[in-house]
Amino acid sequence: MEDLGENTTVLSSLRSLNNFISQRVEGGIGPDVSTSAQGSLQMQYQQSMQLEERAEQIRSKSHIIQVEREKMQMELSHKRARVELERAASTSARSYEREVDRNQELLARIRQLQEREAEAEEKMKEQLERNRLCKQSLDVASRKLREKEDGLAEAGETISELKGRISELQWSVMNQEMQVKDLESEKQELQEQLDLQHRKWQEANQKIQELQASQEARADQEQKVKDLEQKLSLQEQDAVIVRSMKSELVRLPKVEQELVQLHLLAQDSIPAFLSALTLDLFSRQTVA
């Protein structure tokens, strides 16, 4: 909006200057208008344009420096967050690997205990079968049967102890799984922080691109101003030619002066009038 207001001010100044020159040309600029006044006006206009260009360059450079500082800060923050995330991820990975190893050891021990339990149950079945066979000869094998029953009691106690240890190991595995879930949740939070830093970095890049686009638009506007200055210079040259031609017309009779003025009003532009007037003077000199 500020650039648009400055451009509007420049165009208004150019338009006022063009109107002033046009009024002077149409009304007939006489010898009383000073050339130094026009030179002073042109010099003031050029100085104002140079001051505006310098101010705009200073504002643009300061804004670019500010954006670059913000970008460097964002990149540094992004690098720090990435290093912290990598450290946390490495620590979590090592902890996870240790927990996995422990879980595998616990599972191996559980399998061993289950195998021992299966073996004990198999032995129990075999022993029961033997007891059934031994009952047929109870009188002969009564003493052996009592010994076997004592062995079965001990095996039952061993099985109970093994079941208790299995329950404890299962509870430990559940605790380990909960710890792994907590580590995964912490890893997710760190990933979200990293994504936030990445979005901020993208916003900084977008601001830089917008600034570059505004600089290109400003360059186009400066080119337009230069074109207007060139047109103004051409119009001033035309005005000088008109004054020189009017001084030549003073030597013509009054009737011819009126015809020339009417011809000037009838022309669409000053170059067309100058061309017609040159042809007319050339024809008069030829006739003379």
UniProtKB/TrEMBL annotation:
Keywords: Cell cycle, Cell division, Coiled coil, Mitosis, Nucleus
Entries under InterPro entries matching the protein: Mad1 (IPR008672)
GO CC entries: kinetochore; mitotic spindle; nuclear envelope
A Gene Ontology biological process term: mitotic spindle assembly checkpoint signaling
Top-level taxonomic group: Eukaryota
Coiled coil regions, renumbered to chain: 93-131, 166-238
Subcellular location as annotated: Nucleus
Similarity comment text for this entry: Belongs to the MAD1 family.
Name of the protein in its database record: Mitotic arrest deficient 1 like 1
Organism per entry: Rousettus aegyptiacus (Egyptian fruit bat)
